[in-house]
Structures are given as C-alpha cells and as structure tokens.
Amino acid sequence: MFSRVVRKSLAAARYFSAEAAAAKKPATPGGATTKTTGGGDTLGRRLLSLVYTKRSAVVTIRKWKEEGHIVRKYELNRIVRELRKLKRHKHALEICEWMTTQEDIKLLEGDYAVHLDLIAKIRGLNSAEKFFEDLPDRLKGQPTCTALLHTYVQHKESSKAEALMGKMSECGFLKYSLPYNHMLSLYISNGELEKVPRVIQALKRNASPDIVTYNLWLRVCALHNDMETAEKVFLELKKAKVEPDWVTYSTLTSIYIKHSLDEKAGSTLKEMEKRVSRKVRVAYPSLISLSTSLGNKEEVHRMWKKMKSIFRKMNDAEYICMISSLIKLEEIEEAENLYKEWGSVSVTGDCRVPNLLLAAYINKNKMEMAENFYNQMLEKGIAPSYTTWELLTWGYLKQKRIDLVLDCFKKAVGSVKKWNPDEKMVKEVFRILQECGNVEGAEQLLVTLRRAGHVSTEAYNSVLRTYERAGKMPLIVAERMKKDKVLLDEETRELIKLTSKMCVSEVSACLT
Predict the structure, then answer these.
(1) Residue 220 and residue 320: Cα distance in Å, rounded?
(2) What b/e sequence results for 393-429 when a residue is b if at least 16 CB atoms lie within 10 Å of its CB, and e otherwise?
(3) Could you state, in chain order, the average pLDDT of each consecutive group of 10 residues for the chain (512 residues)?
(4) How far apart are CA 81 and CA 32, in angstroms?
(5) Are the CB atoms for 256 and 224 separated by under 8 Å?
(6) Cα dist. 5→228, 321, 376 in Å?
(7) Distance separating alpha carbons of residues 61 and 70, to the nearest angstrom
C-alpha cells in the first residue's frame, strides 16, 4: 500500500521542453528593450510579470508600443520561450497570435510550430488540428508536422500519429530522430511495447539515434526487466560515440537493482552522480531513491545534505522523496522530524506529504498513532485527499471497525469528481460485512457505490450473500437491480431464491 502512495506522489516525464532562454543583455537605444526607465523596465519583464491569466499580453505589448518603444520579433520569441518554461501558456499563445497580425513581423515555420503546440495546450487537440489544416501548404513542413505529431503523442492518439508519420515519410520529413522519439514515447505511454523495435529500425534506416532515443530504448528494457538487451543498447550507445547522461545511468542502475546486482548498480549510480548538476535538479531525488533501493542510508543522507547546500529551498516533491526513503529505510523518527521541518517551511499544505507517514503508521498496525496524526493534519489545516480516506479505510478494515470503514469509504468516493473503482477494497469491505452478516452495512455500501455510478451485479450478489449469512430475506432486489440497470446472473437468481425462504428483514434506512 505504501509503495502505491509513493508512486502517486512522485512526478512523471516531460516532453517538448523549450531550450533555455539566452542570457539577458543590457538595454540599448533602438534595441528590443529600448528606452529603459529606472529599475530596468523591459517588455520582457512586463510580460513575465503578468502572473494572472486574466491579464492580457496583447494590452501590455500595445501599451509598450504607445510609449514609443520598438517591439522586435526575436525579443518576443525569447519571451515566449520563457513563458513556456514557466508553463504560462495562455500569455505565450496571446503573443504568438499578436505576431500573426503584424505585417512587419515575418513568421517562419518554426514560429507556427510553437503556435500550434500552444493552441493544443490551451484549446485542445481539435483546435490544433484545425490550425494545422488552415495553414498554407508552404507552412506544412517538418516543424509544424512534428509539432502536430507531438500533440497526438500527448493525447495518446496512436492511429493519428502513425498516419501522420506515414505522410511525413512521404514528404521526406523523417531525416532526424525527434519524430521517432515521439513515437517511442507514445508506445511506451500506451503500453504498446511490441511496436518499439520497428520504430528503432526505421530510425536507424533514415537517421541516427540520439541520447533521447537510447534512453527511451533503455526504458523499454527496464519495463521488460531485460538486463541483457539493456547492456547491448548501452554498448551500442558508446560505440556510436553518443554521450550518456544521468538518465542513462539512472535507468541502468534501476535494472541492476531489480536483478540484485548491487555492485554494478553502485558503479552506475556513481557515474550518474558525476553527470548531475544544479541545472538538472530533478536528478537529485532520483539519486536518493536509487540509493534507498540499495539500502545505502549514508548515501541517502549525504545526497539530501548536498541538495540542501545547493538549493535554497526544498520543494514538496523533494520532501516526499526523502520522507518516503526514510520510511523505507525504517528510520521513522527521522521521517517524522523531516515532516516537521516541511511543515515549518512549506505553505502548500500538500496532503501527499503527511499521507506518507499516515501510510507508514497504518502499515505498522499503529492505528492509534494514525488517528492522532490525522487529527493533527486537520488542526494544521491540511485537507484530506482521496488517498487519506483510502488509507484510513484500509486501517479500519484491519480492525474490522465497520462503521468507520463505511464512513471513510464514503468520504473517499465523495472526494473525487470521478471515482475509479478500487475492486480490491470493495471486495474486502463486502467480505467483512458478509462475515458478520451486517446487512445494514452492506446496503449502505451499495448506496455509496450507486451514487458513484459503479453499482454492479457482483455488488448486488455480495449484498445477497450478506443477507444469506444473516438468515434474512432482502426486499425487492430484482426491482432495484432493474432500476439500476444491472443484470441478474445465475448466482443472483440462486441467492434470491435461497433468501426468499428466510424471515423478512426490517426495512433498511438506506431504502426509505
């Protein structure tokens, strides 16, 4: 259960990231940041200061021009790159759209590719497709096609991506690795790993694999737990004189750990650390997690200390990584101290952080500590999440405290807009209810499932089995199933027949 909580808490992969913006130059008369005033006023600073999405980038540009400043395309492109890095896509899109209305700004295919990507992020796939279709043929080249392909990858549209790859091949747009890397990412994301070898073969025929290609290939090896192929891929990478990065060694380390080859894992982990710098901050939590998997407490603490010396402040994801590592290493007291530190410096109230300790207490069957800790969360103003209620449900299930189980389960389901059924949990709750013949509880659980839109034949059968165990006859089951549009199966009919000979149960408050 704890590992599932951790997996939910840790962050995922990023695609199509922008290049780092060029270093700022001092403003000069006639330049892109002309007529600076006290404090270094520039168009870039004004646009980047538009934190709230309701504020308009276009209004800001117009005002800048009205003040007599010159607006240059390269400056706007730099600002768009910065905004994309900050995930301020709305303002970036407004700038792109404004540039299309200016006769003195000549836009290239690459500009339209960025424009398409931003439309996809703000307005969705259909709008991005329409934007591409409306482009003149001369602009439907390699950059815009690749941007559209990336959009299909983000939306996991395999068939559309494959069709576009076919058209790009006909037009000779597959002379470099990026489109193939997009397809590899898509197939990994969709679990279509059988298609990966074909993509790699096509890439080798038309272009040369780069480090991203090899890292994705190694990731597939990791998913298959195929160490032999992974080592062959790494040798091929070295032979092709492609420089491995921290991701390469991170993946190799995880593969070696799975195969219990701690010495090899330790070696590749050292190589990984050599390639980590403050520019790739996301690599540090990976180093900590891998050191944890090797059971190396000293390295875990050393890496955390190193991170705190490099970065001014740790973010929630980094606290999550370190606290979960300490829990895995059975250093609960250290984890508790670090949680207190997080509480003193973080203002986010991110429930994922306390959920780690809550899970640890419940897994150790320390339910009293879990309850006290949960109450402390509430006192600190931390709002419980679905995972919080899920953890408490499991904890109370272990103790067979049915009233609290049903209450927490109800709150868990009600805390999300759309509930993805946890069949294991539902089955276990029904099992406990059936064991003690708790028909009232079974009916309550059925109501919760109905409200969530996940009532089923099996749920009704579980209720009927509970009635059978209690020696009671349920009321109007067939009618209720019809109303819920749930089919009766053979077991349902047998249970109805069996329970119909029993004494009539009292009318449940759930049915009135």
Answers:
(1) 26
(2) bbbbbeeeebebbbbbbbbbbebeeebeebeebbebb
(3) 50 35 35 43 92 91 94 95 95 97 94 97 97 96 97 97 97 96 98 96 96 98 97 97 97 98 97 95 97 97 96 95 98 97 94 98 97 96 96 96 97 94 95 95 96 95 95 91 95 93 63 46
(4) 16
(5) no
(6) 31, 11, 20
(7) 10
